[in-house]
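Fill in residues.
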């Protein structure tokens, strides 16, 4: 299945708000883990039932709830009822082809962004949807499979008594978004190395299959642009949000992650321009080579 096309036909004819999983067929079973903390203490639990999470909604502690695996629709609906989520939010959570966005539901904010991973074996970029539900004292993260991307953040939360423990759920939401955006630089660095290697090969000795590699990287750039570009609207919306869920003290941190997002977008645009130039160079080199061949054949025919 192409990364640019999803299987949305399975939702045809269903009422709005009906959760239908549209994502990887080999997705993991639903697992829930919770980090509850305040300035002094932090506790980690793994509820076996989604209904057990209801206590965290009224808890005086700040709770970071990780939901990994989206195929258990019943568990997700139970979790949605516990935290008062709208059916349309649950529908968007299990539909993992959403555009990055921010929606304000009053009691909570719903955010969608894309996590990127570079696969060394195939030299391709993979994307996974991350859905965030931010409440007054909780943050719920929904993803299709377990990821090690947030492990340093979990360790920092468990070991530190600094700012991350003193701030509320909005700060942990910022930290999650910042971790995702910082990982973009690692992915773009790997893709940039591919583009530079291909450019050097194109100038020195263009091979026959280089056109296919250029087209593959151009598709990757379209995919990356589609995943990253809308994120600046999300972060800008958070900065301008007139919501009590986002404190004024978070504004300076959001400006920083906004700058990082713009840098990622600039890098993607620069790589796209390089690939377009490489395509022109390749066509020119093929034309020049054909002219040389025709020149030799003309000389031979004249003789």
């Amino acid at each position: 299945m192409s990364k640019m096309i999803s299987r949305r036909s399975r939702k045809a004819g269903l009422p709005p708000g009906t959760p239908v999983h549209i994502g990887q067929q080999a997705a993991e079973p639903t697992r829930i883990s919770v980090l509850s903390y305040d300035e002094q203490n932090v506790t980690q639990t793994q509820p076996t039932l989604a209904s057990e999470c209801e206590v965290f909604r009224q808890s005086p502690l700040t709770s970071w709830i990780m939901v990994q695996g989206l195929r258990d629709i019943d568990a997700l609906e139970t979790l949605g009822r516990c935290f008062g989520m709208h059916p349309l939010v649950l529908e968007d959570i299990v539909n993992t082809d959403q555009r990055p966005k921010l929606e304000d539901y009053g009691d909570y904010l719903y955010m969608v962004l894309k996590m990127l991973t570079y696969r060394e074996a195939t030299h391709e970029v993979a994307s996974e949807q991350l859905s965030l539900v931010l409440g007054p004292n909780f943050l719920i993260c929904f993803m299709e499979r377990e990821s090690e991307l947030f492990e340093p953040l979990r360790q920092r939360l468990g070991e530190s008594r600094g700012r991350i423990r003193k701030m509320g759920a909005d700060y942990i939401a910022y930290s999650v978004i910042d971790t995702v955006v910082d990982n973009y630089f690692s992915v773009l660095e790997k893709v940039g190395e591919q583009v530079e290697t291909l450019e050097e090969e194109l100038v020195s000795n263009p091979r026959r299959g280089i056109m296919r590699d250029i087209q593959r990287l151009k598709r990757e750039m379209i995919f990356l642009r589609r995943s990253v570009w809308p994120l600046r609207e999300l972060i800008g919306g958070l900065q301008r949000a007139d919501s009590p869920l986002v404190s004024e003290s978070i504004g300076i941190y959001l400006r920083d992650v906004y700058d990082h997002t713009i840098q990622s977008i600039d890098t993607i645009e620069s790589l796209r321009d390089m690939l377009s130039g490489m395509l022109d160079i390749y066509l020119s080199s093929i034309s020049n080579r054909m002219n040389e061949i025709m020149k030799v054949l003309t000389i031979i025919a004249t003789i």
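Helices lie at 73-82, 87-94, 151-159, 163-166, 169-204, 210-228, 231-240, 251-302.
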